[in-house]
Amino acid sequence: MTYIVNDACIACKYTDCVEVCPVDCFYEGENMLVIHPDECIDCGVCEPECPADAIRPDTEPDMEKWVEFNRKYSELWPVIITKKDQLPEAEERDGESGKLEKYFSEAPGEGG
């Protein structure tokens, strides 16, 4: 099992999760985070830290695409281990549907 970040993170990018991760397996894109599925140790401490409920176990239905999504971008984006401010539109976008199609950016974040 591993944990993944889904599209609920897009355009919010809360980073509360990165500080509690004991193995530093979060990676930062311009407007979301992902978890490297091969680095995640399945501890689950990050899941309750996410205000957007964007971190889910891969054992839930239809998570295969998110495992591969997280794998792809974790190999392209820089690691993030320090909490940062959420995106300015986070509160407005939190809970919005269709965020992958509307807002996702493949651009890397700054990391750090």
Topology:
Layout (H helix, E strand, L loop, with lengths): L2 E3 L10 H5 L5 E3 L4 E3 L19 E3 L6 H11 L15 H4 L5 H5 L9
Antiparallel strand pairs: 1-4, 2-3
Task: Tell me what the structure shows.
The protein has 112 residues and is α+β, with helices and mostly antiparallel strands. It has a single domain, classed as Alpha-Beta Plaits (2-Layer Sandwich). The protein is built from 4 helices and 4 strands. It has helices at residues 16-20, 64-74, 90-93, 99-103; strands at residues 3-5, 26-28, 33-35, 55-57. A hairpin with a 4-residue loop joins strand 2 and strand 3 (33-35). It starts with a strand and ends in a 9-residue tail after the last helix.
Report the biggest beta sheet as strand number plus sense, adding barrel if it closes: 2 strands, antiparallel
The SS-based structural class is alpha+beta
Low-pLDDT runs: none
Number of domains: 1
Report how far apart the termini are: 26 Å
Return the CATH topology. Alpha-Beta Plaits
Instruction: Specify Rg, calculated over alpha carbons.
Output: 12 Å
Mean pLDDT over the residues:
97
Q: What portion of residues belong to β-strands?
A: 5-15%
Quick summary:
It is built from 4 helices and 4 strands, in the order βαβββααα.
Throw out a few tags for this protein.
metal ion binding, globular, 11% strand, alpha+beta, Alpha-Beta Plaits, 3Fe-4S, two-stranded antiparallel ribbon
